[in-house]
Hints:
The structure is a homodimer.
Chain A: E1 5-10, H1 12-18, H2 26-36, E2 44-53, E3 56-66, E4 80-88, H3 97-106, E5 112-115, H4 121-126, E6 130-131, H5 136-139, E7 144-147
Parallel strand pairs in A: 4-5
Antiparallel strand pairs in A: 1-2, 2-3, 3-4, 5-7, 6-7
Amino acid sequence: xxxxxxxxxxxxxxxxxxxxxxxxxxxxxxxxxxxxxxxxxxxxxxxxxxxxxxxxxxxxxxxxxxxxxxxxxxxxxxxxxxxxxxxxxxxxxxxxxxxxxxxxxxxxxxxxxxxxxxxxxxxxxxxxxxxxxxxxxxxxxxxxxxxxxxxxxxxxxxx
Amino acid sequence: xxxxxxxxxxxxxxxxxxxxxxxxxxxxxxxxxxxxxxxxxxxxxxxxxxxxxxxxxxxxxxxxxxxxxxxxxxxxxxxxxxxxxxxxxxxxxxxxxxxxxxxxxxxxxxxxxxxxxxxxxxxxxxxxxxxxxxxxxxxxxxxxxxxxxxxxxxxxxxx
Lengths: 159, 159
């Protein structure tokens, strides 16, 4: 079975499918409101990428390019991708969908930073990500992991 | 039954109790390593506060004062408390422990910012917290909620 990663369009169908994902939050609610109030157009590009099985969205992630001036993770500071809300619906897990999405994110050739749930740490490490040295001032409640196309060079923190 | 909020000490007993909480992560692992390598002292203060039932830790939160220069939420920018990992063990939920911890955080008299799980939104709203207007550049995968002792004045974002 072949499947492709697609950039998701903002429309009522996509936003309805998002409700099936555990990490449905303020971001999705805000997109829905913007659509209802015509602040954003129907079918405009979203920061989400996903995989469809037939016409059902079964996996997704959000991806956003951040400027080097916000980079607190890589040495030297550089433009990087922030990846969040990587999630595969329960009945579609362990079939390679998550891996496919992360490989897609890597294909942009930029360093990536994500925040993992502890249970998924093993998955991220298999994907070549590395846990950073925890810094409370910077990381607070996060569990940050980073990946770099040329191998990770982690930024030193002050603490 | 009376119970008190205590500032938690970093020691092997506390760190063992932390393992029972779902949001055990890099922060706790890092504290454990620092203790093992004598980088931090046994029984020094941690950023965690908790409630004991007998000698068992049943609820906790992390609390950290951030400088106004990091404030992207309140208007005008000001020193505020970041609250994370508020969690009550399953068999002790719905007994007021979470409320007690949040009231303790409020007692410092500073504005508070937290990041909620969507399912806990109702709890936070009951505690007087308000969902911020989502801004992707700032909030990424977070669901931020804020509280201010004098009523919230939310910082305007650029987007």
